[in-house]
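Reviewers of the previous submission asked for a worked example of the structure-prediction workflow described in the proposal, so we include one complete record here. The input consisted solely of the amino acid sequence. No template or homolog information was supplied to the procedure at any stage.
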Amino acid sequence: MTTKPLERELATYEQMLPTLLADEGKYAVIHADDLIGIYESYADALKTGYERCGVDPFLVKRISQQEQIFFVSRDLVFQTACQA
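From that input alone, the workflow returned the following structure tokens.
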């Protein structure tokens, strides 16, 4: 059975979210089923993730009650300076 990357960490985040909301706006670091810690900045969270987990997968996620959605258009046309 194959799993999606960070599927376990995302499930852990969702399960812990009600408790994590006390620190909304900060960043959670999650490895497998464990909360590594909560940090003020993304940079601090990422640094700790690499220090504690090395090359093992870990999740850094901003704690938020409402998931932020980004829209990306596929109808972009890119031009280069070398076009004839």
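The radius of gyration is 17 Å. We consider this example representative of the routine output the project will generate in years two and three.
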